[in-house]
Structure formats: structure tokens, C-alpha cells
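Module 6 notes. Inverse folding takes a fixed backbone as the condition and produces residue identities as the prediction. Think of it as a translation problem where the source language is geometry and the target language is the twenty amino acids. Below is one complete input and output pair. Work through it position by position during the lab.
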């Protein structure tokens, strides 16, 4: 997608373009169930037997046949013929007029289909149970296969495996699953003013902080990281770094050096080593973005300002990386909350303002400004737990109005 100098692209156009250009990487691995937490499933998984495997009790109580039930019954007295405990099923037949003592999860024997909870019974004698509150026929029995039936596909490729999914797979006795291989991402910062932690700051220098936000953002996506440090604004150093990064990684991410007025050789070098688009996006913060490829690697050139890095990562890089991992859901969750104060906004670009999302006592979601919104200010970014997304054409948002919100927790998923 080319762009003439004065044209700005919308956030959603860029998202669509990036996502439609990206395919899942090749390569899967079969790994142990525990290792598969948060990985992306690369196969559809099918049940090989019913779960639960047998009818079992949903309560501690007494199991009996629904044939014992009559209309207008006020109580029912049965003989206790034996017991079925979890892992220790009852063996034998149950005659008319009989019940068995049963525990939650214990197998419901043949001829029995109803369980009364213990709290609704009395024990007048050792082997007699009196049911004082009559249950409905078939109550409290969990039928075999009511969760999964044999042959049912219960997890599909593209699913990010949650703790529940590990349990779900375990119910089928599955010890290993096939997941997409881990993505490898190389990243570095560009700028002559940048020093790494441990170095002494000279006049006008700052510490490179973007490599730390990127480290965290990538780590949360379960990605293998290749941290290449700070690369000086130097033609040959940059070219070498781009080539090295692309040779080892599925994607290369840089920050800085993509804005107008940057030393031209960054752009020049990128055009030489890869196919890169330089986009101006109608968003704040985060206007410039370079996106394309170097060799077989995808390339993202993020702006330099610390908050712009995080904002553009969430909107463009994270969806792209999720897509590369083969994940099914990639775009950030957006919900609505009521702003409790005036949000200042000039029409023109989509604002990603840092906000604090809260729940009021009546359950309503409210949001307020997290502080100064300039793109170098990490104070408000650190305090924030969401972006308030204010559409491009919108002006100020008055207190009490609804605003779109992207919670960070959801974004990190
Ligand atoms: P640039 O896009 O290179 O012009 O950078 C824009 C602003 O972000 C400048 O103020 C840079 O000093 C700052 N900046 C660039 N890279 C980093 C970094 N890695 N860590 C902290 N600030 C940075
Ligand atoms: Mg720079």
C-alpha cells in the first residue's frame, strides 16, 4: 500500500492490511500437556470416549430407581442395599424398594437413575433411608457423555490453550498436544542518544527504555526473544543489524528512526534490504509506522517515543504476531465505559488516551484520564489500565458520555 505525503491511513485500514498480509508460520511441535499452557493448538482434538465415561452422582446422597416415585408422595422409605463411592462402584443389582448410599462422582449402578441429596433424607435405622423431600425423576445424575461424546471435536486449531483447556484435554487422557512452534522475534532500538542500562549517560543521552517494554510485551505473548541492543544511527551498522535480525527471526521489530526528519539512511537502508512501506497513521500517539519484510521475516518499524511503541504494538504488532502464531482471535477487546470527566480531543486522528477503568458500586464501568497524554510520558502509561479509544472525527468527550475502552488485561491475552 503506497501513500502520498499528506495522506493518513486509519487505524482499522492498517490493521486490516497487516492482518490480511500475514499467514501463520510453518512448523509445529508435539509437546507435553503442561508445556502447552498458553500455546496455540495446531490440530483439532477429538474425543475418543465419552466423558464422563459413566453415569455418576452429582451429589452425596442416596441413589434409587425413578420407578419408586409416585405422584403426591410426601416421603419415601427405602432399604439401603449397599454403597457406591468414587472409585469404588457398587457391584450387584438393586431390587425394587432399595436404594444405595452414593457419593459425588461415584458410578450410578444399573437400574438406578435418581439421586436424592443427603440433606433431604433421614436415617430412622441403620439400613433404612427415609426421603423427606422427594426429588424429580433423574435428579442429580450426570449422564455418561453429557460433556463430550465419542468423536466430538472439542478443541479446534488456533485456540490459545487456557488452564481449563489443559483440564479438558486431561479428561480425555491426552498427554501431548500439537501446537504451533514458538515465534522468534528479534528487536533493537535505534538512536545515537540511547544508552543501555549500566552505561553512563552523556550530555543529551537517555536510557533505552523501549527494549524493556518490548521485552515485556513479547514475553507476554510467549515469544522467543533475540534482544540485539542499541544500534547507532549509522548506515552500515543499521544494515548489518537488519540482515542479522532477519536471518535469525520470524519477525524483526525496531523502535525509533521512522519519523520524518530522521536520518534518511534508515529509510534508505530498509528499502535496500527489504520491502518496506512507510505509513502515516491517523492515530495519536504513534503516527509513523514502517511495515514490510526483510527476507522471510516480517518487519515492524515502530516510532521512538515510549508510549507510541506500546500503543502501536497493541494495535498492529500484537495482532500480527498472534496471526503468525496461528491464533484465531487477534484484535484487542473493545468495551464501553462512561467517562467521569471531560476528555479533551481534537478531531483528526484516533486517540489512544491512557485511562483508568473502574467499576462503580452499582457495577457500571467508568473510566477517567490517567494523566498527561504526551507520547514520552510513562507516568500516566504506568498508572493506566486501559486505552480510551476516541474515534478520529470525534472532538471532546463530555463527562457522562460513553467511550470505547481497550483494557490492558484483555490486550495481553
Ligand atoms: P525517533 O523516532 O527516533 O525520532 O524518536 C522519537 C523520540 O523517542 C525521541 O525523543 C527519542 O529520543 C525517543 N526514543 C527513541 N528510541 C527510544 C528508546 N529506545 N527508548 C527511549 N526513548 C526513545
Ligand atoms: Mg531516533
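Target side of the pair, the amino acids:
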Amino acid at each position: 500500500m503506497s501513500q502520498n505525503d499528506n495522506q493518513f491511513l486509519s487505524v482499522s485500514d492498517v490493521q486490516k492490511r497487516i492482518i490480511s498480509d500475514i499467514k501463520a508460520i510453518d512448523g509445529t511441535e508435539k509437546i507435553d500437556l503442561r508445556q502447552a499452557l498458553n500455546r496455540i493448538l495446531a490440530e483439532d482434538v477429538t474425543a475418543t470416549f465419552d466423558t464422563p465415561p459413566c453415569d455418576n452422582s452429582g451429589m452425596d446422597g442416596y441413589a434409587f430407581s425413578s420407578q419408586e416415585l409416585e405422584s403426591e408422595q410426601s416421603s419415601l422409605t427405602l432399604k439401603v442395599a449397599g454403597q457406591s463411592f468414587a472409585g469404588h462402584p457398587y457391584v450387584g443389582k438393586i431390587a425394587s424398594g432399595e436404594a444405595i448410599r452414593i457419593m459425588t462422582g461415584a458410578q450410578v449402578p444399573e437400574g438406578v437413575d435418581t439421586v436424592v441429596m443427603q440433606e433431604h433424607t433421614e436415617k430412622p435405622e441403620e439400613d433404612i433411608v427415609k426421603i423427606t423431600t422427594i426429588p424429580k425423576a433423574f435428579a442429580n445424575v450426570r449422564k455418561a457423555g453429557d460433556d463430550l461424546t465419542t468423536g466430538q471435536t472439542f478443541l479446534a486449531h488456533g485456540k490459545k490453550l487456557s488452564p481449563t483447556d489443559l483440564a479438558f484435554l486431561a479428561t480425555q487422557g491426552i498427554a501431548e498436544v500439537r501446537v504451533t512452534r514458538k515465534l522468534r522475534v528479534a528487536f533493537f532500538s535505534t538512536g545515537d542518544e540511547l544508552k543501555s542500562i549500566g552505561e553512563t549517560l552523556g550530555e543529551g543521552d537517555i536510557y533505552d527504555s523501549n527494549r524493556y517494554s518490548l521485552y515485556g510485551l513479547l514475553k507476554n505473548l510467549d515469544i522467543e526473544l533475540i534482544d540485539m541492543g542499541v544500534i547507532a544511527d549509522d548506515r552500515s551498522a543499521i544494515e548489518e543489524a537488519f540482515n542479522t535480525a532477519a536471518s535469525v527471526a520470524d519477525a524483526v521489530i525496531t523502535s525509533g528512526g521512522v519519523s520524518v526528519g530522521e536520518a534518511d539512511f534508515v529509510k534508505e537502508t530498509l528499502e535496500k534490504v527489504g520491502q518496506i512501506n512507510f505509513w502515516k497513521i491517523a492515530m495519536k500517539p504513534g503516527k509513523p509506522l514502517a511495515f514490510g519484510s526483510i527476507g522471510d521475516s516480517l518487519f515492524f518499524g515502530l516510532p521512538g517515543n515510549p508510549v507510541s511503541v506500546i500503543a502501536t504494538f497493541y494495535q498492529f504488532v500484537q495482532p500480527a504476531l498472534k496471526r503468525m502464531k496461528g491464533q484465531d482471535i487477534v484484535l484487542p477487546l473493545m468495551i464501553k465505559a462512561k467517562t467521569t470527566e471531560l476528555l479533551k480531543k481534537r478531531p483528526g486522528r484516533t486517540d489512544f488516551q491512557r485511562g483508568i477503568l473502574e467499576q462503580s458500586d452499582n457495577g457500571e464501568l467508568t473510566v477517567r484520564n490517567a494523566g498527561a497524554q504526551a507520547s514520552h510520558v510513562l507516568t500516566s502509561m504506568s498508572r493506566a489500565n486501559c486505552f480510551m479509544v476516541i474515534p478520529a472525527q470525534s472532538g471532546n468527550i463530555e463527562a457522562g458520555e460513553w467511550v470505547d475502552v481497550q483494557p490492558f488485561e484483555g490486550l495481553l491475552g
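Reference fact for the lab report: The chain is about 20% helix and 30% strand.
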